[in-house]
Amino acid sequence: MATHKIAIIKGDGIGVDVVNEGMKVLDALAPRYGITWDYTEFPWGSDYYFEHNEMMPSTALDTLADFNAVFLGAVGHPDIQDNITLDGLLLPIRRRFDQFVCLRPSVLYPGVTSPLSGKKPYDIDLTVVRENTEGEYLNIGGFAYHGTPDEVAIQTSVFTRRGCERVIRYAFDLARERGKKNHVTSVTKSNALGFMTIWDRTFSAVAEEYTDIDTTSLLIDAACMDLVRRPEMFDVMVAPNLFGDIITDVGAIISGSLGLACSANINPDRSVPSMFEPTHGSAPDIAGQGIANPMAQILTAAMMLRHLGEDAAAAVVDAAVLQLLEQGETLTPDLGGSSTTERVGSAIAEIVSK
Ligand code: NAD
Ligand code: IPM
Ligand code: MN
């Protein structure tokens, strides 16, 4: 009988709806796997900001330190500048708990149509390992002469040898563990941005230790093209923060929908919480309509289960989503169906409860 202490941050827009369905599924499987969920829900996000002028209280990060994991929907509101919302909540959590791996699988599942023609199930089956704490996301920079014609804006990108090495090593270990194509693709832009050769050099050095794994190095522009042209070539991709962000939206849409794109912000050291949130955002264009696909959040819940050591329960969640996709009857509009968020969540909860 395991108890897992989980911080719930539903956030904004569709984040609230999809987390509700994720929790429905987690609750449904709990008795069967002897799991007790010790949830604490935090009302942090844009509504909190409208009331308190901050996205979360100054003590929030200390509060989260006591949890085994954070289960988050999405943050972002059309009436608040995005860098305020994200640098007020999401990015500080990733940094504080040094969640240096952002793991984002893209799989073309049976029953799902790729916008790329002629793709069969599992023709796309890749995982992006995104560096998640440094690069362009450290928020070191600012403005001079703000708002004047002489305005200057500077933001620095930071790559450390240690930061590159640990995430690249994680990618090689993952390729080995997957045992599929034994292949890692590295993505940079060191033709134009020469400082990124620190990543390339580190990649080459780590690769030498993994003689059983083949490698390819691509520039980000070509990597985006190849994701569309021949996604079959990819197994594990490892990329700096910003490029990892970009290629995972591409990976999501070629495998059917952002509504299927699960994600985990991981610190392999379990003494601090990792954070589980799907790749997608708060989707203001469909928020409040009850039609967001909860599968990304539910598959993200499976990643959380796996991180918590609940492998059997995780496998059941993955299988339940696959079953629904293959049946093709209970799907949200992004996948060509007409079911609601709640209906899809309930159908998955029902499968995992049996
Ligand atoms: P988005 O991911 O919210 O939406 C992009 C498109 O995908 C939209 O057309 C949306 O309707 C669709 N979509 C996304 N998730 C879906 C789902 N589950 N089911 C069906 N369709 C789905 O990206 P955006 O519009 O660029 O960003 C909206 C807001 O979210 C912004 O404020 C942005 O900063 C924020 N954002 C937050 C996170 C996060 O909290 N992790 C991630 C990405 C974007
Ligand atoms: C993501 C998001 C975030 C990121 C934004 C909202 C800061 O796009 O998780 O992919 O760029 O990391
Ligand atoms: Mn993104």
Secondary-structure blueprint of this entry?
Blueprint: E1 2-11, H1 14-33, E2 35-41, H2 46-52, H3 60-64, E3 69-74, H4 82-96, E4 101-107, E5 125-131, E6 135-144, E7 152-158, H5 161-178, E8 183-188, H6 197-207, E9 214-219, H7 220-229, E10 236-239, H8 241-254, E11 264-266, E12 274-276, H9 295-307, H10 311-327, H11 341-353
Parallel strand pairs: 1-2, 1-3, 3-12, 5-10, 8-9, 8-10
Antiparallel strand pairs: 4-5, 4-11, 6-7, 11-12
Helix pairs in contact: 1-9, 1-11, 5-6, 7-8, 9-10, 10-11
The structure holds nicotinamide-adenine-dinucleotide, 3-isopropylmalic acid (IPM) and manganese (II) ion (MN).
Residues 86, 90, 245, 279, 281 line the site of 3-isopropylmalic acid (IPM).
Describe the protein:
Helix content is 40%, strand content 21%. With 354 residues, it is α/β, with parallel strands linked by helices. Strand 11 (264-266) and strand 12 (274-276) form a beta hairpin. The longest helix has 20 residues, at 14-33. The site of nicotinamide-adenine-dinucleotide has 22 residues, from helix 1 and helix 4. Residues 245, 249 line the site of manganese (II) ion.
